[in-house]
Amino acid sequence: MIQGQLHPDFWRVGETLGKILKQFPGGAAVCVYHEGEKVADIWGGTMDVQGTPWREDTMSVSFSTTKGIASTALHVCADRGLIDYDAPIAKYWPEFAQNGKHEITVRHALTHQAGLFGIRRLIEHADHMLDWDHMVDKLATAGTQIKPGAGSAYHALTYGWIIGELVRRVSGKTIGEFLQSEVAGPLKLDGLYIGVPEKELPRVARLVDTMGTMKKVVPDTRPGVKRDGGPPIQHRLIESVPVFRRILHALAARGVAHYDFSAPEIVRAQIPAANGVFTARSLARLYAAMANGGHLEGGRILSDQTIGKISRIQLRGRDRVIPLDMQWRLGYHAAFTTKGTLSDGFGHFGFGGSGGFMCPRRRLSVGMVVNGGVGSNLLGDLRIGRIGGAAVESVKARGQSVRENQDRLGALRQSA
C-alpha cells in the first residue's frame, strides 16, 4: 500500500510507484516538487527481508546518486570562492600532482575527464574503500589511464574521493560534515548523509536482492574463499569484450559484489561516489532549490550565477566507460526519463534505480530511493526514469482537468 501525500494532478506518479512496488522486492519512496510546491511525498513496500514496513523517515543507500550530492557540496565551495573550476587539483591538494597529474583541473574531475577511472588499477580489494586516507593516497600517487581532457570516462568510484578530498582540503571538513552543516542544515533536509551517524542507523533500509546481478560477473576474491573452476563464465566473457571490461574495471572493485552496502559498518564510512544514504524527500528538496536559483523557503545554498555555470553541458559524445552520451554538466548528467531526455534537466541516477534530478524550465524536481532488486545489467534499471516520465506527463497535463485528476487519484487510493 502506498502511503503519504499526493496532489491529484500527479496521480500518474503514484500509479507508477504502485506498479514498481509490485515488480521489485523491498520498498521505495518518491518525492516531487513543482514550482516550489511539494506535490508528491509517497512511499511503500518493506525496508528489509523481515518485511518491516517502509516508514516516512526511511532512508536508503543510493549508490551513484551520491555523486550528484557530492558535486553539490563542491559547488557550494566554488560559490564561496574556495575553489576555481579551472584551477589544477594540485593547487588545493599538492600531493595529487604526482606521476604527471599536475595539469588535471577541477573541471576535468567534474566531467569525468581526469583519466583515473579504473578502481581495479588503484586498489587490490574493495575493503580498502573504507579507509579514506588509503584511497586519497592511492589517487595522489596514481598515473592516468587516458590523457586527461580527451573525453569522458565515467569515474564510477574514484570520483567520490577526488571530489571529497577537494572539499576537505578547502573547507577543513569531511564531505559528510560539510553536507550536514552547509547543505542539509540550510535546506532543512531530513535525510542526506555520506557517513551515517550511529543514532540514525535504525532509519536505514537494508538492501534486498540488489547485488545479485553483480555477483554473477564479479568473482569473490576475499581471502579464504574457495573458488572451483576459476571465475564465473559471465566474468570471463565480460573481460574479453573491451567495452564491458572498462565498465567492470570502473564500477567493480574486487570483492565489491559481496559487500552489503547497507550494513552499518559500510554506511558509516564515506564513499562519496557510491554509499550516500538519503530520503527521497531530501533529494527532491535539494534539487528543487537548484531549480529555483539555489534557494528554497528561505534556505540558500548556491547563487544564480553558479547554478548557471553548472547547468551548461560541458561535452558531448559517447562516454568511454558508459557507452552513452551522458551530456555531462559539472558533476551531473542529463535528466533521462521514459518520456525523453529533458533538454535543460540534470541530476544523477544510481545503480538499482534511485536518482534525483531537476528541470529549471518546468521548475520540476524528482527524488527516488529504493532498496530492492536491479534490472538485468550492471547499470541498473529504469525506475527513476519511469517516475521522471510520470512527473513530466503530470506537469504537461496539470490543470487540464481537475475533476479527472481527482477521480483518478481516488481510484488509485481505492485500488491500494
Task: Please characterize this protein's 3D structure.
Helix content is 36%, strand content 14%. With 416 residues, the chain is an alpha+beta fold. The strands form 3 sheets. Strands 1-3-2-12-11-10-9 form a 7-stranded antiparallel β-sheet, sandwiched between helices. Strands 4-6-5 form a 3-stranded antiparallel β-sheet. Helix 2 packs across helix 7 and helix 5 packs across helix 6 (158-171). The radius of gyration is 20 Å and the shape is globular. The model has no long low-confidence stretch (mean pLDDT 90).
Q: What descriptive keywords fit this protein?
A:
15 helices, 3-stranded antiparallel beta sheet, alpha+beta, 416 residues, 36% helix, 7-stranded antiparallel beta sheet
Largest sheet: 7 strands, antiparallel
Derived structural class: alpha+beta
Amount of helix: 25-40%
- Low confidence ranges: none
Number of strands: 12
Strand order of the main beta sheet, please? Answer: 1-3-2-12-11-10-9
Mean pLDDT: 90
**How many angstroms does the end-to-end distance come to?**
5 Å
